[in-house]
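Field reference: sequence -> structure
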Amino acid sequence: MGERDDLDFRTFPANRVTLDEYFLVDLATSYTFDLDDEYIKDFKIFAKVQNLFDEHYEEVFGFSPPDPSFRVGLAFKL
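Structure field:
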């Protein structure tokens, strides 16, 4: 994301500010295992990483992003 203008509402009238450019890296993957079992047809494992390199950025002035996060899960098809 490139530089862009925003407003700082901490004062009246609001002052124009420029938000810095930033580059985010998010990764996601999944894999499905076909079992063809009597009870479970398949199951999927998935993972997602957001803001992999801990980039500090602001989409809106004064609101910092969350810390990097990692999620992993399983899904079953019966």
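Note: Residues 25-77 form one domain.
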